[in-house]
Input
Amino acid sequence: MMKVSKKRFVAAGLFIVALLVYFHINPIAFPANAEEKKNMEPYIQNMKTQCYGRFLVDVPQESTREGNGSYEYGFGKVSVELQAGGLQHFQAYITGLEKDLASQYIRNGASKLTHAESFSDSGKLLASYANEAGIGFNMLGLVKKENVLFKVTANGSDKSDLDTFSRNLQELIPYLKPLADDAIPTGPGFCMNGGIITASHKNGEYYSRGFTLPKLPGLYFSFTSNVNRDKVWPGILDRESSILKRWGELVSLVKTLRKARRTIDGSEAQEWLMRYPDDDGTYKYSFELEIPGKPHSLAEPNITVMMTIIGKDAGSESEPGNITEAEALLLWDAVTSTIRLRPGAI
Output
């Protein structure tokens, strides 16, 4: 058995302590006490399941989805809105948009509206010049399904882009379907707020949406998935040296609560959970988890999950926050450990 001298042992110990102090790393991940566990029971017990893109995530019962989200599908950005009324209401809405664009003019006096194309009573494409010089197009596809209005947008530079967008939009229309916001579909598809795309595209897809908690207004949880192209970017821990270099002297202000490599639903994940002072004198918590994924994979895209806590909820050096570090970790672990591919999504 190899002997280790006392001097070397002490030196190694001092080196480790120095690292922990310099990077403000706690070797123990703040185990929650009985009171903190009880405080978090309403959030981490009996959670509800929601569909995020092609994935399922369990979230607190009282959580509220934030905004409409941001979605991209292959050739364009997609948004979903509730639109009451039938086809007559939709046609009146379209007519109003056309008139508005037609009444605007670019620098040479031409109408801003350059193209209008109907696919059916419930589908329309409008294209308008992108600027006063008449260079480039803004393309807008509008599709009405029941009480849901789907909008698909993209930019183009010439007529071939417009023709391609028109063709792609017509191919997409049969796969646009309404979906209740908390519904869990069983077949293939990409969930959005109020809708689903029951197809896949060779150029991938992008999803971004999050939730808040009414009793903790300073807390925001976000989930983003993005299908990789040929290159898969390294995870947050693999980029650690470049991140620290970018921070420079500010690194001394950062307190790392936990850095870890985890396995989530069979995929390698990397997380970095930290706290640092915000501009208003309070703390700011920034928890981030990344799953790098694989190239061109709908089942294994790049996934980024973030939880931020600011203001009174985070507290400050002189005043504790509305949620402790241990409680924040309980919530974080409860949500992130449930991320999984939805059965039948692909």
